[in-house]
Amino acid sequence: MKYHMNKNVKISLMLVTLVVVALLTALWATTYSPHSPLLETRRGPPPPPIKDIELYYTLNTVISSINVTILVILLITYIGIYRKIKSEFTIGLMIFSMVLLFYALTSNPLVHRIFGFRAFGLGPFVMLPNLFTCVALVILLYLSAKY
Predict the structure, then answer these.
(1) What is the pLDDT of residue 79?
(2) I need a surface site. Which of 29, 43, 64, 98 has the fewest CB within 10 A?
(3) pLDDT confidence of residue 37
(4) Does some domain include residue 2?
(5) Which residues form the domain of 23?
(6) Structural domain tally of the chain?
(7) Taking the model in full, what pTM does it have?
(8) Each residue of 54-88: b (16+ CB within 10 Å) or e?
(9) Amino acid 2: pLDDT
(10) Does residue 17 lie in a domain region?
């Protein structure tokens, strides 16, 4: 006899996971020092005097990490669906989720910092693509969890 999780419990667990990831990422992004000796291999332009830029990059880090978490949840969901019905459409959804997962990973500013790259002066445009992706993924997650 297989155990099937209640849909409300499943959705609540997903939401709690997303909130925890967002909080941990925000904490790490705000306390992370880009002046680590391991990452000082490149010299970038001087940081802009506006403090809002840091806010945009922190928000972009949080949104990108939420996207990664949602995509992992979707990928696990689609793998479970594929095991049940063996549909080619589900394989397409799995590939779609993996490609978007690679996008979310490579667009995360934490990954950029780890490899020594920094962007300056993009303002809110640094986070808008990930914000729109996040909205689309939340809708996709809602529809996937509903059925």
Answers:
(1) 92
(2) 43
(3) 46
(4) no
(5) 7-146
(6) 1
(7) 0.66
(8) eebbbbbbbbbbbbbbbbebbbebbeebbeeeeee
(9) 53
(10) yes
Averaged in consecutive runs of 10 residues, what is the pLDDT profile of the chain (147 residues)? Answer: 66 82 78 53 54 71 88 91 90 90 84 72 71 86 78
Question: What's the chain look like in SS3?
Answer: CCCCCCHHHHHHHHHHHHHHHHHHHHHHHHHCCCCCHHHCCCCCCCCCCCCHHHHHHHHHHHHHHHHHHHHHHHHHHHHHHHHHHCCHHHHHHHHHHHHHHHHHHHCCHHHHHHCCCCCCCCHHHHCHHHHHHHHHHHHHHHHHHHC
- Which two three-digit tokens encode residue 135? 């909205």
Q: Do the domain assignments include residue 40?
A: yes
> Does 1 reside within a domain?
no
Cα angle 72, 22, 61 (rounded to 5 degrees) comes to 85
For residues 104 and 71, is the Cβ–Cβ distance under 8 A? yes
